Amino acid sequence: MIKTAILVDGAYYKKRMLKLRGAETPEEAANTLYKYCQKHIKFGGKEECHLYRVLYYDCPPSMKKVYNPLTKTTVDLAREPLHDWNTAFLNELKSKRKFALRLGALADEQIAYSIKPETTKNLLSGAMSVDEVTMDDLALSVRQKGVDIRIGIDIVSLALRNQVEKIVLIAGDSDFVPAAKVARREGIDFVLDPIWATVKPELYEHVDGLKSFPCGLQDLSSGVWRRDEEL
After folding, report:
1. Residue 7: partners with Cβ closer than 8 Å, 6 or more residues away
2. Cα–Cα distance measured from residue 208 to residue 189, given in angstroms and rounded to the nearest whole number
């Protein structure tokens, strides 16, 4: 039995699943994550795997009030539907067996509305005027604090304490590379799951493999592959 830990970058995971599956209720989304992680245990390789724990990394939703320069009003993020959804989603995960939440914090002082890059390009080129800017052209800029460092610390801790033999990281960037190097030097089988996103070529040399599973609107237990979700 290969003792396996699954680490999930929550912000990345939610973004990918929203694109591939569409909107879900908090309960549905939590069940989707649970089933998806189970696939790494049931179909993770030739050896039989045993789940050590799923570590989920995210931040509680913001309670900040943010000024909207377009509508010239103040938006209370605590009253937005997304706040309620994220709160309910985290509560659902807390009830899942062998799930542990590792929560950082949002950089509230840096939360602000900004113009999307494509809109900025159109404005500067004269393709559109300021009067044509709508809410669709704005994005709420939010930064997380303490999430990446928690992922890195847990990877190193799991490896050095010999708590697991395999680590599956559901993420899509290269911030984890230094920790992955330590884990691999300690003999850990390190697998990256970018959920069908294309990863940078240089990441391949720092992981032992890439593995993603079906996660579209079909039943997750069916094992049916969708061509539009393949790399």
Report:
1. 54, 55, 57, 151, 154, 155, 167, 168, 169, 170, 171
2. 6
User: Angle at the Cα of 207 (from 183 to 198), degrees rounded to 5?
Assistant: 140
Contact between 131 and 123 (Cβ < 8 Å): no
Cα–Cα distance, 115 to 96 (Å, whole number): 38
Query: Can you spell out the DSSP letters for 156-201?
Result: HHHHHTT--SEEEEE--SSTTHHHHHHHHHTT-EEEEE-TT----G
Give the whole-angstrom CA distance, residue 16 versus residue 10: 10
Cβ neighbors of 217 (< 8 A, separation 6 or more) are 21, 22
Could you give the CA distance from residue 14 to residue 10 in angstroms, rounded to a whole number? Answer: 6
Ramachandran bin of 196, using left for φ above 0, alpha for ψ from -120 to 50, beta for the remaining angles: left
The angle, 0 to 180 degrees and rounded to 10, between the axes of the packed helices 26-42 and 10-21 is: 100
Q: Is the pTM of this model over 0.70?
A: yes
Q: What is the largest CA-CA distance in the chain?
A: 62
Per residue in 17-45, pLDDT tens?
999 999 999 999 999 999 999 999 999 77
> Which residue is associated with the tokens 């294309």?
198
Q: Is the Cβ–Cβ distance between 35 and 82 less than 8 Å? A: no
Angstrom distance (rounded) from CA 8 to CA 58: 9
CA dihedral for 198, 199, 204, 210, sign (positive or negative): negative
